[in-house]
Fold these 2 entries.
Entry 1:
Amino acid sequence: MLLTLAFRHLWVRKVRSLFLLLGFSLGVGVMVVLLSVGEAMLDQSRDVSLVGGGEITILPQGIDVEAMRTGGVSGMFFAIDRARFLTRQVVGGPRHRHMVRSVAPAIESKLVYICPARGACSPAAARAGGEIPSRAAALGAGLDVREGLWADTPGDSAYVAPTPQQLYDELDRFHLPRRPDSTWGEWHYFNLVTGPAEWWYVSFLVGGEVSLAPAQRDRWGGRLLVTHRRPDGRYDQFTADEPAGRVVFDTTRADLTIGGSTVRQRDGTYSIRARARGRAGSLLLDLTLRPLPHRYFPPVELRDDSFLSGYVVPALAATAEGRICVAERCRAVVQAPAYHDHNWGVWRDVTWEWGSARGSSLSLLYGGVYGPERTSDSTGSAVTSPFFLTLVDSVGVRQVLRFSAIAYEGVRHALGSTGASAPERFTLVATREADTVRLGVEVEHALATEMAASSFRRVFLQMRGRFRLEGQVAGRAVADSGSGFFETYCRESEVGCQVSLSP
């Protein structure tokens, strides 16, 4: 009876019944669409061209989500530069620990060619990926393992959370040139301040046509170069040259031996032992250098077909202790501010801008390379790296900004036999989107050294000065001041240099 009354009511009230059915249909349709979208999202999260799990996905620069869905990541073979640095510090470091629970790096569907371990090689193309099992599981994207074991290997652990020994060996390892080149050079560089007007530059250098082949050993070697700025304002130099047979370097570690001088890195602590001679007598350095946590800058390389320039800063800020002996007179070094970087590459007609300083809360690093001029380029332009300014605090890199030029002003005396002068001051303005930082430096001391070059005459300026930094980073005002070391090159007639070299 009730069913009959309901149908008769719908038939009598046709318009009302039509609106009722329309509303009911819309509701059902919306539910069907939502369920379909949810099912599609679940399918996409398992797609071979997508990275599943997590709340934020970091993509290579220049690619968008649509490119991901159409196979862009796997099809165009994009990659993220310095992914280890992003994983360990920028995204997964202590700065964002309150927001980021876990970071899971992944390699998606890369094209690789497989050859048998033995016998003739007939490469077979394959698509391969990789991820860190524990990190993928933490993001809800772990594999459903039906048989066998899927767990972190020692290499996985070293990628996401290296020990101090692993981290500094990875950053500070040595390299082999791609081809023999007489202008190849690679070196450990240290500086330390042992008094208000006293500091040391220490370089462990390997140079020449570096090769592991025994027949090439007479074409390269090692040099220890130490420059001492004395409290009275004068400079002393100490050197020790060694043939290739007395040089030992490691492409997997920071360790280096040049004759009786050594650099050793153990658990994040550097032991530096150096012996050299100069006009002031014999020199012995026996120092321990300890980098401050998180104050490092990752490896970067500038390269083209014939040019390579690499740079890394394992210790943007450090402390040094030990002893220094000159002419058998020894003195103790206690908690001296120190710095360490590592350079490698081909240095024919190469110059640079560089500076490193420490303030009350920030460490800063800026730099850029002018490579050799391109003879095939009608403009005569040089291979130039983008100039960068990096601000680092106690939890790591705070921001990396870009700048296009340094404004040098004034003229002051520079010690040395070149007849060159140094600038009195200089400024640069670096930006990144809404962030802007202005750095001003007052030069207090300068040393000028004439450098050999095949195409022009140049002077290398090593300067010590005080800086003032101010600006805005991530919506917050920043300001700091302190002291640092700065380097530049200049040619004849350049403003602030006034080179007057003897013929």
Entry 2:
Amino acid sequence: MSLSIIVLAAGKGSRMASSKPKVLHEVGNYPMLFHILDTVSSFKNSFVNIVISHSFLDYKDLIISKYNKVTFSIQSQQKGTADAVKSSLTNIKKNPTDYTIVLCGDTPLISKKTIEKSLNKLVKNNLDLCVISMKPENKKNSYGKLKFKENKLIGIIEQSEIKKQDHKDICNSGIMIFKTKRLIENLKLVNNNNRKKEYFLTDLVDIFYKQNFSIDHYVCNFNETLGVNNLIDLSRVNNEFQKIKRRSFLSKGVIMEAPDTVYFSYDTKIAKNVIIQPNVYFGPEVEIKDNVVLRSFSYLDNVKVSQNVLIGPYARIRDGVNIKKNSKIGNFVEIKKSNVDENVKISHLSYIGDSTINSFSNVGAGAITCNYDGKRKNKTIIGKNCFIGSNTSLVAPLKIKNGSIIGAGTVVNKDVPNETVVYRKSELIKKDKKK
């Protein structure tokens, strides 16, 4: 079975009040379009075509850098969904397939499972068309309504075309699956004899019915079909996405004391027996191993945390940090682009940037790495079993070797040898060797 997958992404999105294309607005720190492409790209023997507008051309390279096998079609004027699909036919005909799935680029929550079930229904029942439908929570809505005759689907009427109150509660999700041959042959029959003077893809249901083609629908969960027309919609979709992530993590053994206050990104990875206190934020590329405790108001972004680590409260860890097992990152500590080895303690009020801290070292309150000299970022390397006293300033580039002690309030701007005590403006004093 071969698939053509058409993703409609040419809408202007003017109601988003943003210069960014609507489908590139993010859900869980990930563009809506990428959610859709990740879902459909997992189908075997499939061909993906994205319908875009001229204004989207500047973003093509961004898409291709991540999805190098997709093709693009341009809808020159936004004249409706059927016109958008028509613009993709040249590419579809170059890659003949058995079936075609049409999706909207602003419905990021649709699951692969729902698409598979709809496709299986079409194939099993030898349908020419299967509409993915849903039942909205509010019967007063702007969705197109499915029309039935003797329990058979005969058409879809767009909300703008309804002349009187329609009491049916089954609505169009915007996702349709066709036999590719039927779609190509009948798309030209769609006209724009409607109030908006647009070519509606939904008119194909009526066209198929009048030709005695086999059509039906598959009812899915309404929340999967939530679309985005404005920032209010985007907020709602983000909220639903967070609910899905929270349920998933809770079911896998992640402990959350106040789940509604925790924010996850699309790619957050968390192992078992992790405790997350209220108001923790996970940015992209965060991976947490077993038995980690994340205390309240901590912010993590591009971080890998190994087993048995304690973080927070009020910690900010970002931009490529790797924390090894049994370490402690305390309150009001910021770490950026650094490696923290096993059994390291940075308990409070410190800034660590562009650094490596080796095992069993302790960084005191108020200690900072001065990594920026006004032109470039420089590195600080702290060896094993070092003690960095409170309110110290480590001026990079700098190497502090194993077993050394930096006294409180010291400014260090010279490399420190093994087992050395440093105090009073970088004066070096050798430690007494143990007898």
